[in-house]
Each structure stands twice: as structure tokens, then as C-alpha cells.
Amino acid sequence: MTNTVPATVGSESFIPVNTQTWVNGRHNVRCVKVIKETWDVYTFCFMSEQPVMYFFKPGQFVTLELEIEGQQVMRSYTISSSPSVPYSFSITVKRDPNGQVSTWLHENLKEGDELAVHGPVGLFNCIDYPATKVLLLSGGVGITPVMSMARWWFDTNADVDIAFVHSARTPGDIIFARELDHMASRISNFSLNLICEKIENGQAWHGYRGYLDQAKLEMIAPDFMDREVFCCGPAPYMNAIKKLLQDNGFDMSRYHEESFGATPVEIEEEAIENAEIAQEEADALTDADMLRVEFLGKGKSIQIAPGETLHAAASKLDLLIPKACGMGICGTCKVLVKEGETVMEHNGGITDDDVAAGYVLSCCSVPKTDVVIDF
Predict the structure, then answer these.
(1) In this predicted model, what pLDDT tens digit does every residue of 270-312 receive, in sequence order?
(2) DSSP assignments along 162-181, one per residue
(3) CB neighbours of 115 closer than 8 A, spacing ≥ 6?
(4) Contact between residue 370 and residue 307 where contact means Cβ atoms under 8 Å apart
(5) Spatial CA neighbour of 163 closest among 178, 183, 179
(6) 172 with 203: CB under 8 angstroms?
(7) Which end of the chain is flanked by fewer CB atoms within 10 Å, N or C?
């Protein structure tokens, strides 16, 4: 969708500015600002050369398409900014000493650099789960999606009672500390509660210490059972939060968590087991059982066994369909099915409108008939 902005001021006329609206897909963007949040956390701000209105649901994420040491690498990051500031968007990245992408971003991405992003996508957001009372729980860099939500409610003067609880290693590791203090000082329905695991020499701290537990939660939000809960952080943190809530009999349909991180071990093990079973079944197949997958744009096709994904078919032909999560979450591997039928089991990485238009996520879609893919 494109909106033409009137461009006449006084007696002077200017070339109209065509403003596009962001939709899920691949987009070229330029880094316009790099902000140091803490000693190991940077925020990267992006815009397009032509004006784009970056509308998304607070809590959603994008997938960066990068080239690192000659290899294409895809990595998903939550949008930390709010759609209330629509002409740019930001991601906030903590440097992991063992992380290839976060280290590369911290050391290499600078103002003026261009790259491609895919998105926005994600089921974890505050728009699809409206509530008048919310509890935002975050640990470490998991603050990014709930910060996007808080910024959205703050900027739009939403009538939402917000209890914001963030856990950090030390006071020096609190991301967005000054902005959080600002929001808490400006509106009465924003309760800010910070918890630090430990205090280092020379640091002044008057907040909570240790870890979020039952006693702290009852002090911070005595009515937590009545709130919609949004949680993001390391897996052990989220597991502890879920157990705490479940032990209290919380209605877990009102609990929402960020989930696009590393593939859980149990899912990896299940995938390996399923692959072994599929290989055994494939060995017993005849040519009549195979399905044909044609990639229209590449002029290539291949016969695959029932149950194999479109992405696997492409890989066998040395065709690289971009992929980040492999679980139907990030939306990176979206392709258009021109002919034939497929079955898709995704995890929120594609919109209903895209599905209606014939798009599927190749990582989690298997053909039911011979198919033709526009790729």
C-alpha cells in the first residue's frame, strides 16, 4: 500500500513523497544509528532509502540477512522500538562471546551500512492479547520485546496498568535504565521494578536483589493473578516463571512468552528421530510413490519422498531458500506455490493473508501432490 503525501507549501511545489507501508517480506534497509546501551549491548536503528511506515505489533521480530566470512547467515532479533515511531525500527543486541552474529554486529555494523531484513512476524505481541492490566517480565536482553510493548502503551497514552519487572545481572547491565525511569516518573499506571542478581564494588543499588521469586512477585504485583503476563528471557528464567505461575494456579492461557530462540533439545531430538524414520521409509519407496517439486524460477525439479519438506527438496538441488529458525516461526523461508497442494505446520511465521495468496513456509511445508514453486 502506498500513500501519497501532499507536497505543496505556499507557492512552492515539491516532488510528492510516496510512503510505503511495511509488510512481511524481504526489505533492504540502512543502519542510521548505533547506540551503546550497556558495556555489551548495542541498539541498531534502521530506515529505508525511500520513506516506509514501519507498522508492526509490539513484540514481533525481524530476521537479518547477513554475509559473514563469505557465508549467508540468517538471525532473528526482536524489534525493541515501537510502531509509534513509524519511520524507523530498532533491534537491541547483546554481544555473546561465543555468538557469531552478535559479535559480528558489534564489531562491524556501522552507520550507513545496508542489509536485508525479513519480517515482521511473531505471535508474541500485545495487540493480539489486549488487556487493561499487564505484567511484563524480562531477564537480560529479553527486555527487548516487552520494552517495545511498554513504549507503545506509553506513547499512545493507553489506559493499561503496567507492572514492569526486569531482572539483570548487575545495575550496570540494566538495559534502557534511564528511559524506564523516565516512563515511570511520567505516568501513574507504570510500576517499574528492577532486580539485580549481584552488586559489584562501587555500585549503588537500592532495588531488589537476587532472583524473582514468589515473595518478590507478591510485593511487586499482589494482583498478578489478574494480569495478562508477557515474559521473555533466557530459557531457565522463563521456565522458572512458568513454574511459579503454574504452582499458583495461574490461567496459563493468559501467559505469553517469546519463543523464537535456539531450537529446544527435545525438538532437535524429535527431528533427528523423524528423519531416521523417514529415511527408512524412503528406502522402501518406488518411483510411483515419489512427488515432483519444480522450482519455476530456477528451471529445476526433483523427485522427493512423501513427508519431505519443500526446503529439503531445494537443498537437494543446491538451491538456497533463506532460512533462520527451521520451525515455521521466523517467516524467512516463505515461497509461493503456483501449482499443487501442500500441508504446512507453522508456528506463527506467516500471516493469514499470505496463506490465502498461496504462500507457504518451505521449512515446514510438505507436498501432497506434485507442486510448482515460484522460486
Answers:
(1) 445 555 555 555 555 555 678 999 999 889 999 998 888 999 8
(2) EEEEEEESSGGG-TTHHHHH
(3) 28, 29, 31, 64, 65, 66, 109
(4) no
(5) 183
(6) yes
(7) N
